[in-house]
Design a protein that fits this description.
62% helix; alpha+beta; 3 strands; single chain; 2 domains; 3-stranded antiparallel sheet
């Protein structure tokens, strides 16, 4: 009888916890679904805009593909190397550059002075 009452009490205590976890899981799924629904609209908006490459990049035609090329000097050599990317590659490169710049800026903000970093 004692075990039955303990099991019933435990069930009554854990039932609201299980429903709360299910509600949290449902809330986590909804924003992802909303983001998926918004992605085609953003992509259509991006397709409508004409792509302009960053300064220093020239548009070239390679067969039926349009690529954007720039001459870059590799480390350890004086000879310039031509690097070409398509539109998606350029966009990915620009995003990566922005993320790297944000990381560098964050490190500068954190340790901008000896007082901010302590005496590490």
């Amino acid at each position: 009888m004692r075990k039955l009452l303990l099991n019933l009490l435990l069930l009554l205590l854990l039932l609201p916890l299980a429903t709360a976890q299910q509600a949290l899981a449902d809330d986590e799924v909804k924003p992802a679904a909303a983001a998926d629904a918004a992605a085609p609209a953003e992509k259509a908006k991006a397709d409508d805009e004409t792509f302009t490459p960053p300064p220093g990049w020239r548009q070239k035609q390679r067969g039926k593909f349009v690529v954007y090329c720039s001459k870059q000097t590799e480390k350890g050599t004086r000879l310039p190397k031509e690097v070409c990317y398509d539109e998606d590659g350029i966009r990915a490169m620009l995003v990566a550059q922005r993320e790297d710049q944000e990381r560098v800026d964050q490190m500068r903000r954190v340790c901008s002075s000896l007082a901010a970093c302590g005496s590490n």
